[in-house]
Amino acid sequence: MWASILSEWLSLIFRWLHVVAAVAWIGSSFYFIALDLSLRPREGLPDGVMGEAWQVHGGGFYRIMKYLVAPSELPDELTWFKWEAYTTWLSGFALMIVVYYLNADLFLVDKSILDLTPLQAGLFSLGSLALAWLLYEAACRSGLAQHELPFALGGYVFLVALTFAFTHVLSGRGAFNQIGAIIGTIMVANVFAVIIPNQKKIVAALLAGQSPDPKLGKAGKERSVHNNYLTLPVLVLMISNHYPLLFATRYNWVIVAIVLALGPVIRHFFNERHKGRPSPWWVWGIAAIGMIAIALLSAAGPRQSAVTALPAAPTFAQVEEIVTSRCSMCHASEPVWDGIVTAPKAVLLDSAEHIRRNMRLIARNAAWSGAMPPGNVTEITPEERAILAAWANGD
Could you tell me the sign of the dihedral formed by the alpha carbons of 35, 41, 43, 48, in that order? Predict the structure, then answer.
């Protein structure tokens, strides 16, 4: 019991820290992207300044200037933006260990997809996390990233291919988390391995009385642009575990492919506005089409379903038998599943009244998607899911 309680509290603490750090990191990232794009060259600016921006906030006016490489002399105080990114990744990885690695049999493995042991699933997750980042880093350092459009298209295909592979190895929830973790790792590694080291080299050159290499700033800006376009997709992937109709349906990898395309398109709208250019309103038409496509795909049902037509209206006795045998060992006032001390999300399914009351939740998680039971640990069959769907649709 105490192990379960400790795990739950660690999950809460790390998730809270992860969200707070992510808000700080993404907020500052969005601000500086907007600031960078809004800078305008004007007469009378100091040497080396590429542009300035005037802003108003909190009752005060701010005049902000950006040096193309660096000022001739460093100020006494210099604020670095790095700990937000580092804390986001460290807390996220800790959360991944507590939720996914220590509970791999529930959240990372789905034996109906591939019969992995928790250790095998964890090693696969760690290995693919490191390998994906190494391949991205190699592509950037080879010079491919200088060709923006081909690099972006290649990166998109790479991420979609990874998603397809993950959905055929891990559970749907685990696959979505894994591709989100890979994108997040790439973004933080850009800060840790390129942006901050290059900025430190520029500072060191200034302190030594030398002229900084302009390529250092250019490389950092390149990685910052990558992060800018990856932010919106990773946010969707990180919250997707709350939406079974996304991660636990038949075309889940296609849904990720659409999300990966929509995120950069939506960022393009805001980037163009920050540049002072005409707003590309067509973006919202593309976004609407993409969201409609996701909604239609999410209605395709669970991936493992082999039933092409819903059965005739089932009796409640059939439904009750399925829920009792497949769900109520956890969703009960006194759960009997090892390691679970209270009903998940306080959903009780141990009586006819509770089953009827939670009909939509049952259908959403166990009929219209394959999210429950997690990892299909109780081995619910496609036919049983079809019976639950027919009950929910006919009630």
Answer: positive
